[in-house]
Amino acid sequence: MNDMSRSRIDAHVGGLETGGQDAGPSPRWQPADVEALYALPFNDLMYRAQGVHRQNFDANAVQLSTLLSVKTGGCSEDCGYCSQSARHETEVGRERLMEVEEVVATARAAKENGATRFCMGAAWRGPKDKDLEGVAEMVRQVKALGLETCVTLGMLKPGQAEQLKDAGLDFYNHNLDTAPDFYGQVITTHTYEDRLDTLGQVRQAGIAVCCGGIIGMGETRAMRARLIAELASLEPQPESVPINMLVKVPGTPMALEADLDPLEFVRTIAVARITMPASHVRLSAGRRELGEAVQALCFLAGANSIFYGDKLLTTGNPDVEADQLLFAKLGLKPEPVQGRRCAGHD
Ligand code: SAM
Ligand code: DTB
Ligand code: SF4
C-alpha cells in the first residue's frame, strides 16, 4: 500500500485507538483506497473490520431475513448468473405470481422461526402496473404480521416506488452486482445506469435501500474493489448490503466458473464493513458452500445479517436447524428489530 492510500484510508476509517469515524458525511470512496484495504495483511484487515463493527453494532447480534420467490422464472433479462432467466436452460420453470394468502402463510412461518424481515423476490425486468398492486397487497399483509418488509422486483417506473411505500414497504433490494466495467459481460439487457436510476427512485420515495453484489463471477480483485467503491459512494450509503457468493446454477453461462478462494470472500465482507460502517452487511447466497468455519470468519469480518430459511429464491440455503446450531456454537443471537444502535438505519 502506498503512503497516499494509507493516509486516505486512515482518514476514512480513523485510528482504532482514537475512536474511529468522523461524524461528518463520508467522503466518496476511491477504488484505489478500497483495493488498498483488500491488500492489507489478513489479520490487520480483520482487526480493522472488527473495530469498525464494534463501534457501530452489537458484535454478537445478527439480523435474520427470510426470502421467498413470489414470482419464479421466465425472466426476460439475460443475467449470466441467474437460474430464472428465460434465456438459460435451467431446471427452474416459469410460474405465476403467488396468491397473497400463500405468501402470508410463509411469512407467518418465517416469523415463528425467528425472522424479523421478509423479502419477496420476483423474476421480472420490472413490475407491470397490474402486478404491482398484487405485490403491494402482499407487503400490506406481511407488514401487518409485524415483520419488516422487503421486495426485489427489478427496475421501477416513476410512481411505482411511491405505491410500494404507501403499502408499507420498508426496504427495496436492487443490486449493482459487479463493477461498472464488468457489468456488460454479465448482463446486456439493462445497464448500470438503469440500476442506479431505480435506486434513486427508491431513495426518493423514502424506502430504505438494500444494495450489494455477487462475488466469484470471474471478476478481478480490482473489479471487486470497484463494486465496493460504488456501493460505498451511494449517498446515503445503503442500509443493507447483501454480499452474495456466486451459486453456480447448471444451465447458466456461469455454471462452470472457477471456485473463488473463500478467504477472498471474507476479505470482501471486511472491506464492505470498513467502507460502510453503519450498514448491515448481509452474508447472502452461497452460505451452504462456505461452510461453518468460513461463515464464522465472515461474522468476525463484520457480517451481521443473513438469509435465514431453507431456501433462497430457487437454490438451497442452510437449514434453520443448522443455523441455530451455528449460532449456538458462535454465541450469536438474533438482532431484535428494536435493538438498533443507529437511528435511521436498519
Ligand atoms: N429480478 C430482480 C433483479 O434482478 O433485481 C430481482 C431478483 S434477482 C434474483 C436478485 C439478486 O439475486 C440479483 O441481483 C443477484 O445479486 C442475486 N442472485 C441471483 N442469482 C444468483 C446466483 N446464482 N448466485 C448469487 N447471487 C444471485
Ligand atoms: C440478494 O442480494 N440475494 C438474494 C436476494 N438479494 C433477493 C437472492 C439470492 C439468489 C440466489 C440464487 C437463487 O436462489 O436463485
Ligand atoms: Fe434473474 Fe433478476 Fe436478472 Fe431476471 S433481472 S434474470 S430475475 S437477476
Helix segment tally: 12
**Radius of gyration using CA atoms only:** 19 Å
Structural class: alpha/beta
What is the end-to-end distance?
33 Å
Which band does the percent of strand residues land in?
A: 5-15%
Shape: globular
User: How are helices and strands ordered from N to C?
Assistant: HHHEHEHEHEHHEEHEHEHEHE
Q: How much helix, percentage-wise, in residues? A: 40-55%
Hetero compounds: S-adenosylmethionine, 6-(5-methyl-2-OXO-imidazolidin-4-yl)-hexanoic acid, iron/sulfur cluster
Low-pLDDT residue intervals, each spanning 5 or more residues? 14-23, 339-346
* Number of DSSP-assigned strands: 10
Average pLDDT confidence is 92
Main β sheet profile? 10 strands, parallel
Can you describe this structure?
- Helix 2 packs across helix 9, helix 3 crosses helix 10 (262-275) and helix 9 (221-232) runs parallel beside helix 10.
- The chain is 41% helix and 13% strand.
- Mean pLDDT is 92; it is low at 14-23 and 339-346.
- Strands 1, 2, 3, 4, 5, 6, 7, 8, 9 and 10 form a ten-stranded parallel sheet that branches.
- The chain is of the alpha/beta class and 346 residues long.
- The chain is globular and about 50 Å long.
- The chain is built from twelve helices and ten strands.
- Helix 9 (221-232) links the parallel strand 6 and strand 7.
- The structure holds S-adenosylmethionine (SAM), 6-(5-methyl-2-OXO-imidazolidin-4-yl)-hexanoic acid and iron/sulfur cluster (SF4).
- Residues 67, 83, 121, 152, 173, 175, 212, 242, 244, 247, 284-285, 312-315 line the site of 6-(5-methyl-2-OXO-imidazolidin-4-yl)-hexanoic acid.
